[in-house]
Amino acid sequence: MKISPLSLGFIAITLMFGLKGANASEDINPEFKDLLKEGLRTKGSVQLERFLSLDATQNFCSDSNVNVNSAEAGQLMSKALQQIQYPAGSSYLGDWKEGERIAQSGKGLRFNDTNDTENGGNCYACHQIRKDELAYGTLGPSLYQYGKLRGYSDEVLRYTWAKIFNPQAFLMCSNMPRYGHNGILTVEQMRNILALLLDPQSPVNE
Amino acid sequence: MIRRILVTVLISVFWCGQLFAEDETAAGIQEYRDLLSDGNPAELWVLSGEELWFTSVGPKGASLETCDLGKGPGVVRGAYVELPRYFSDVKKVMDLEQRLIHCRMAIQGFSYLDVTSYPFTKRGQETSEIEILVAFVASESRGMHMNIPLEHAEEQKMFDLGEQIFYFRAGSHDFGCITCHSGDNRRIRLQELPNFRNQDQARKTYGSWPAYRVSAGEVRTMQHRLYDCFRQQRFPEAIYGNDMITALIMFLAKSADGGVYNAPAMKR
């Protein structure tokens, strides 16, 4: 078979696009991965190997030109929604005081934490929640009077649980962590957080 | 003699700084700034760094006066605003800290471990030598414009990799630099977050590092800032003086291109 320079060029272009396509859904490109492997190391509770195996959502959202309205985004979101695990017996509400403690804590899963550090939710890093806590961040919307404004219906409970379990089931590439899906918080912790937002007795809903 | 008096004055001012460090509110810092008016404690680091630069040390008993930071041997003035850059002697792109590591090994005869094992001063312990050298070199670019032309292919490559790191979202929390540094007027708790996709903010921010951190009572370098942001975003530990950080610094420096460099600054 005779290969002309033109068809070589064509093959090269196909290869380039083929590889780029593969990156988007499977693995980090090798040169970039090598750079990360050299630049980062396992410490405390953060394992390099586990860190380097991205899931499809992380791969998708790491693209600097990501299109969150694409068909692929739609597929990822509906899959995320299907994978949400709801608490047994739809028992959504725990203890709001515990929830407040979890919302305050930024501990856990950093390289200066150990495996037995209890993970916090660090919700105040990004959200206003209780009115008397003034040191709140603004990456996310205010959650003050969350239940009072939305009501305490089953739909609100179910949505809020799902949103915290996996925010990306509702907004692709949300800046909020996937607390349930990624195993940051336990079911019990999530119930306590839900009580902070949706127990009518919680100071959030005063 | 004049220098000795200056250092004494700075040390006493610095001591006041320690008192004020207890009060972390913005008002406290403003008051502290006013008190110091034009005296930034970082000057102390700059002076010590300058002294170390000209002192003969290490197995080879040499000073850093022949170290080439990119503008010829011994030229410190204006070097920082053109870094990171490609160095043909080692055939790679280096940021200031990598280049200092290189010079201290090649010229002064230190081992890699000697010069990298204590990059960041620990509270109450001796000051890291690399931090004072960085403070000195950086101060010699004050008032100049950031100039990162990316002329060499390797420089462009490092920039591209750095950009990729900026957008890379991974780890238990799916965080990347983009999560916290891509919107205007955002905060984590009470800390304001610069938006690196906004050129003005990128210039202002990049142009202020290294900085005297009131909360730490130390001068911290860009390497240290990034080390801590990697920690916050739940990434594995960043290894000091690595190409990955250089790539990221290249991306940040280019984002600040053309801005007026004004460090060491003073920060919370």
Describe, in short, the structure shown.
The complex is a heterodimer of chains A (206) and B (268). Chain A is mainly alpha-helical and 206 residues long.
Overview of this structure, please?
The complex is a heterodimer of chains A (206) and B (268). Chain A is built from nine helices and one strand; from the N terminus they run ααβααααααα. Chain A has 206 residues and is mainly α. Chain A has a single domain, classed as Orthogonal Bundle (Cytochrome Bc1 Complex, Chain D, domain 2), CATH 1.10.760.10. With 268 residues, chain B is mainly alpha-helical. Chain B has two domains: 1-38, no CATH class; 39-267, Cytochrome Bc1 Complex, Chain D, domain 2 (Orthogonal Bundle), CATH 1.10.760.10. In chain B, strands 6-5-8 form a three-stranded mixed beta sheet. Chain B has a two-stranded antiparallel sheet with strand order 1-2. In chain B, helix 3 (42-54) packs across helix 6 (129-139) and helix 7 (153-167) crosses helix 11 (243-255). The radius of gyration of chain B is 18 Å and the shape is globular. Residues 1-24 of chain B have low confidence and may be disordered. The chains are: A mainly alpha (206), B mainly alpha (268). The A-B interface holds A 31-32, 35-36, 38-44, 46-48, 51-52, 54, 57-58, 61-64, 109-112, 124-126, 135-139, 173, 175, 177-178, 182-184 and B 161, 163-176, 179-180, 183, 185-191, 193, 230-232, 234-239, 242-245, 247. Strand 1 of chain A pairs antiparallel with strand 7 of chain B, so a sheet runs across the interface.
